[in-house]
From TrEMBL:
Protein name per Swiss-Prot or TrEMBL: Tf2-1-like SH3-like domain-containing protein
GO molecular function: nucleic acid binding
Pfam families: SH3_Tf2-1 (PF24626)
Phylogenetic classification of the source organism: Eukaryota, Viridiplantae, Streptophyta, Embryophyta, Tracheophyta
InterPro entries: RNaseH-like_sf (IPR012337), RNaseH_sf (IPR036397), SH3_Tf2-1 (IPR056924)
Record-annotated Tf2-1-like SH3-like domain positions: 191-239
Length: 262
């Protein structure tokens, strides 16, 4: 059966805007890199979704959830506290066998330059100022050591936070408009009949062979979780996983189901 060429239904929606540094974070993994002298072959990347400050942590590709949790606590929670939400993402890339040696420098350099999304420097949003680099120590005037009043500093950081939120919202809206140009918004109500795409990851027993159907249905909608996710009444033989993202087609009485198995 031919592979479906139809684009996914539903519009792109961005995540809620964080309200403070290191409350909402995202995690990426760069896997399968050349082994370093300490036998590390992967990178664990943790980013604050508000300030975009990032920690780049060497790890092993074979590290399990227990080891990753220890890394998260030792490198992130120890410094910033426990986050309220974690977004797990995916990232791939290449580097040299000396990557572990350079990670601390990459971490520092990434956090002290302007981030495109928020138009600010991550260090400024988290600490209230940009940290010095070795190049800054070449010329260190006495005037730069002057201290500011606590109230002025607090007001400055509050102003930075508000402007960062504004830039996050503006950038998110621009991205939504660009991504949704060719997408079709579609909302299903409780009781609507829909066809589902049988993804191998969600339905492994039903996709053992390429000759098996790629779709199934129609199934009734039980509940709408959000604009792009629904709970369907799926029979137990399908695995009983009824929470699905919006890659489903509506069912119309009398229409041909020839292409619904795509």
């Amino acid at each position: 059966m031919a592979k479906s060429k139809a684009s996914s239904n539903g519009l792109y929606t961005f995540l809620p805007i964080p309200i403070a540094p290191w409350i909402d974070i995202s995690m990426d993994f760069v896997l399968g890199l050349p082994r370093t002298h300490n036998e590390r072959d992967s990178i664990f990347v943790v980013m604050d979704r508000f300030s975009k400050m990032t920690h780049i942590i060497p790890c092993h590709k074979t590290d399990d959830a227990f080891h990753i949790a220890n890394l998260l606590f030792g490198e992130v929670v120890r410094l910033h506290g426990l986050p309220k939400s974690i977004l797990l993402r995916c990232f791939v890339g290449k580097n040299l066998k000396t990557l572990e040696t350079w990670l601390l420098h990459i971490d520092f350099a990434f956090n002290r330059v302007v981030n495109k999304t928020i138009s600010y420097i991550p260090f400024e949003l988290v600490y209230g100022c940009n940290l010095l680099s070795p190049l800054d120590l070449v010329s260190f005037p006495i005037s730069s050591k002057a201290n500011h009043e606590c109230l002025s500093k607090t007001q400055s950081m509050v102003s930075l936070d508000e402007r960062a939120k504004m830039f996050l919202e503006r950038q998110g809206k621009r991205y939504v408009e660009r991504v949704n140009t060719d997408k079709e918004g579609r909302v299903y109500a409780k009781g609507d009949l829909v066809w589902i795409h049988l993804q191998k990851e969600r339905f492994p027993t039903l996709r053992k062979s390429k000759l098996l159907p790629r779709g199934a249905g129609p199934f009734p909608v039980l509940k709408r979780i959000n604009h792009n996710a629904y709970v369907l009444d799926i029979p137990q033989e399908y695995g009983g996983m009824g929470d699905l993202n919006l890659r489903i087609n509506s069912f119309q009485e009398g229409e041909s189901d020839t292409n619904k198995g795509e």
